Amino acid sequence: MNDMKNAGLAAVLSFLICGLGQIYNGQIGKGIGFIVVYAISWALMVVLIGFITTPILWIWGMIDAYKVAEKINQQQRVTSTSV
Q1: Which chain regions cross the lipid bilayer (predicted)?
Q2: Pairwise CA distance, residues 50 & 72, whole Å
Q3: Domain chopping of the chain, boundaries
Q4: Cα dihedral 45, 51, 55, 61 sign
Q5: Nearest Cα to Cα of residue 57 among 30, 26, 22, 19
Q6: With 0-12 CB in 10 A as exposed, 13-18 as middle and 19+ as buried, what is 60?
């Protein structure tokens, strides 16, 4: 069973829609959480704080999706070599 994840694809998906990379990685709840918090952050642009939080969440989502995909791949490599 090959559950390897493409870290670049995970980051690009999160670039397109914040949280989509997490969903691709199998972290459904975390991905939905990112989407909801990102939407709230967009709404907060009305009171200006969103201009700070929105790009931070967007970048954080991309980095997190990439790093988690890499971690999944590393765990898969260890599991496949120990079997």
Answers
A1: 31-60
A2: 32
A3: 18-76
A4: negative
A5: 19
A6: middle
* pLDDT interval class at 2 (50, 70, 90): low
Type of residue numbered 49: I
pLDDT band at 81 (very low <50, low <70, confident <90, very high): confident
pLDDT given at position 82: 72
In order, the DSSP letters of 52-79 are: HHHHHHHHHHHHHHHHHHHHHHHHHHHH
Residue 65 near residue 23, CB atoms below 8 Å: no
How far is it between the farthest Cα atoms of the chain? 55
pLDDT for position 83:
63
CA pair distance 39, 2, nearest whole angstrom? 34
- CA gap 79, 62 in Å, rounded: 26
Helix, coil or strand: residue 17: coil
